[in-house]
Each structure stands twice: as C-alpha cells, then as structure tokens.
Automatic annotation (TrEMBL):
<dbReference type="Pfam" id="PF01250">
    <property type="entry name" value="Ribosomal_S6"/>
</dbReference>
<dbReference type="GO" id="GO:0005840">
    <property type="term" value="C:ribosome"/>
</dbReference>
<dbReference type="InterPro" id="IPR035980">
    <property type="entry name" value="Ribosomal_bS6_sf"/>
</dbReference>
<comment type="function">
    <text>Binds together with bS18 to 16S ribosomal RNA.</text>
</comment>
<dbReference type="InterPro" id="IPR000529">
    <property type="entry name" value="Ribosomal_bS6"/>
</dbReference>
<dbReference type="InterPro" id="IPR020814">
    <property type="entry name" value="Ribosomal_S6_plastid/chlpt"/>
</dbReference>
<protein>
    <recommendedName>
        <fullName>Small ribosomal subunit protein bS6</fullName>
    </recommendedName>
</protein>
<keyword id="KW-0699">rRNA-binding</keyword>
<keyword id="KW-0689">Ribosomal protein</keyword>
<dbReference type="InterPro" id="IPR014717">
    <property type="entry name" value="Transl_elong_EF1B/ribsomal_bS6"/>
</dbReference>
<keyword id="KW-0694">RNA-binding</keyword>
<comment type="similarity">
    <text>Belongs to the bacterial ribosomal protein bS6 family.</text>
</comment>
<keyword id="KW-0687">Ribonucleoprotein</keyword>
Length: 98
C-alpha cells in the first residue's frame, strides 16, 4: 500500500542551474520508475548551516520532495542517494501519520 513521504535533500551549494535540474529530473525518474505518484519538488533555496560544516561546505541547497510510494521504492531510491556525491544529506519521513 503506497504511503505519503517527504524527503528533504541537502545538495552541494555550488551546483549551477543545469546540473541541478538534471539531478532533480533523474531522481524524480527513479522514483517514478519504482511506482511513486503525486510527486512534488520544491526548491527551498540555499541556507547556511548553524555553526558547522558538512563535507567541507558551510551552506547547502535545500530541496523538498513530497510523494506517495511503497516503502521498498523509498529504500531503493535512498541507496542511490547515499552514493551520490552531490547529495550532502537527506532525510525521509512518512507524512501520512496523524
């Protein structure tokens, strides 16, 4: 049974517009291939980290993705995020819990 999820991605702040769009399109395609629906992607912009660095960066580009998918699809997608050098951090939460 598909569940609603929200994933917050923190990407490298030095990504230009074209590589950023390619990355987001490829990640959306992976989710769709694994059965995700109602996919919404929001660019929250560049934000400074609070007193620490993440992989040598003091700020990051925040992207919010909301979608419905099977838990196995999310797990498969996250395996790819772990090895992507443009992704500094990510966090997925179920958003259908009341």
């Amino acid at each position: 049974m598909p569940r609603a999820y929200e994933t917050m991605l923190i990407l490298r702040p030095d990504m230009s517009d074209e590589p950023l769009e390619q990355l987001l399109n490829s990640q959306e395609a992976i989710l769709r291939e694994n059965g995700a629906a109602n996919l919404e992607t929001t660019n929250k912009g560049k934000r400074r980290f609070a007193g620490f660095e993440m992989k040598g960066f003091k700020e990051g580009l925040y992207i919010q993705m909301n979608y419905e998918a099977e838990p196995s699809a999310v797990a498969t997608w996250e395996k790819g995020l772990r090895i992507n050098e443009n992704v500094l951090r990510y966090m997925t939460t179920r958003s259908d819990l009341v």
